[in-house]
Write a structure and sequence with these properties.
The chain is α/β, with parallel strands linked by helices. The chain has two domains: 11-180, Rossmann fold; 186-383, Dehydroquinate synthase-like - alpha domain (Dehydroquinate synthase-like, alpha domain), CATH 1.20.1090.10. The protein has helices spanning 19-27, 42-45, 48-58, 75-87, 99-111, 118-124, 185-203, 212-233, 238-252, 265-277, 281-295, 301-310, 321-338, 355-361, 374-383; strands spanning 11-14, 33-37, 62-66, 92-97, 135-139, 151-156, 161-166, 172-175. A six-stranded parallel β-sheet has the order 1-8-5-4-2-3, sandwiched between helices. The chain has a two-stranded antiparallel sheet with strand order 6-7. The longest helix has 22 residues, at 212-233.
Length: 385
């Protein structure tokens, strides 16, 4: 294992029905001016907005609303949120929603305290912001695990780049299964697949020797697969739903990444696909993973073969390492079809118009077992059409 120091800043308040009491207790620690951030308004339709506002008012907070945060949040939206935070002298940001809202606020928190453009600061100067507005998250749509880290994926429409930026960690995250029960099932499954993808992308990093974190990762992957199936069988199964919520957090709370340099090449390719098409993230990953993984053979055969056995329960009898590796990818592809995620870009309404530009502008990750060329990434994309 590589050297590491482990300390985690995010306090997790987890439990069915915990949201109101947990939030009330945490809000006492912060100033009066609160920026309440949310998406397209679904929290109003299901009553979550009213509950949150009741808690905020009882705590004596002055609330400024930052609404309309879109899926695949844009850089322009980040800047409007930062301006709103400055104008209203915001003391605390409360993000209520899923990964898009939670990601957007991480960068709003940093940009509001930074005197220069954060994209140029991070990508042009290699800087990392040091000052932030404190934040808390109430998760209503799970899968990304965004509440557990300080990375955010933001779409810079002007640059045609959907890329990671680094902002603030949340002081606390409220994970209440009751707040997620109104998620559309397609969103539940695509979000849960994103959690599985996070786990696989971490597992496929370097060094290649299996360590303790990897063995926890294998259990996390098995858990996600089992509970996706249980959720599809019974959408009201709160136990299965709560398991998926915690698995999403585990995949991104740093535990699985200790001692590793992660892969995340599939995520980088999907991010650029999203920059050009604004597609659903989990669905894009489902389309790309099997094809990209076949192109990672034979370099990744050892890890693929172990996943075949330890995660998918495939027998080793009479099989070579390469055959087991292929069996893993076949099992993954079959599972994607089983849970009715799209298997081609055509299924997602995406044609081959921008594939060459997507391949050329995709970030190459240092932890990937294979160093992909533009041409090979283009081949992956074409195979997915």
């Amino acid at each position: 294992m590589k050297k590491f120091t482990y300390q985690y800043p995010v306090k997790v308040c987890f439990g069915d029905g915990i949201a109101k009491t947990a939030l009330a207790a945490e809000l006492e620690k912060y100033g009066n001016n609160v920026l309440l951030a949310y998406g397209g308004g679904s929290i109003k339709k299901v009553g979550i907005y009213d509950e949150i506002m009741e808690v905020l008012k009882a705590a004596g907070k002055n609330v400024t609303e930052f609404s309309g945060i879109m899926s695949n949040p844009t850089y322009a939206k980040v800047q409007s949120g930062a301006a709103l935070a400055r104008e209203n002298e915001i003391d605390f940001i409360l993000a209520v929603g899923g990964g898009s809202v939670i990601d957007c606020c991480k960068i709003v928190s940093a940009q509001a305290k930074l005197s220069e453009d954060i994209w140029n600061f991070e990508y042009g100067k290699g800087g990392q912001p040091k000052e932030f507005i404190p934040m808390g998250a109430v998760v209503t749509a799970f899968g990304t695990g965004a509440e557990m880290n300080n990375g955010a994926v933001i779409t810079n429409e002007e640059k045609k780049q959907k890329s990671p930026l680094w902002g603030a960690f949340y002081d606390f995250a409220v994970l209440d299964v009751g707040y997620t029960m109104t998620m559309p099932m397609k969103q539940v499954i695509s979000g849960a697949f994103d959690s599985l993808s996070h786990s696989m992308e971490t597992y496929m990093g370097s060094p290649r020797e299996i360590n303790y974190s990897d063995e926890i990762n294998e259990a996390t992957q098995r858990n996600i697969i089992r509970n996706i199936r249980a959720t599809l069988k019974n959408p009201d199964d709160r136990q299965a739903r709560s398991e998926l919520i915690w698995a999403a957090a585990m995949a991104e709370n740093g535990m699985l990444k200790l001692g590793k340099v992660t892969d995340f090449q599939c995520h980088m390719l999907e991010h650029q696909l999203g920059a050009y098409t604004d597609c659903n993230h989990g669905q894009g990953l489902a389309v790309l993973h099997p094809s990209l993984y076949r192109h990672m053979m034979p370099e990744a055969n050892k890890q693929f073969a172990r996943l075949a056995v330890e995660v998918w329960g495939i027998s080793t009898d009479g099989k070579t390492e390469a055959e087991l590796a292929n069996a893993f990818i076949d099992a993954l592809a079959a599972f994607i079809k089983e849970i009715e995620l799209p298997t081609t870009l055509t299924d997602m309404g995406i044609d081959d118009t921008d594939l060459e530009a997507i391949a050329k502008t995709t970030i190459r990750t240092g932890g990937c077992v294979k160093k992909f060329t533009d041409e090979e990434l283009l081949s992956v994309l074409k195979e997915c059409v």
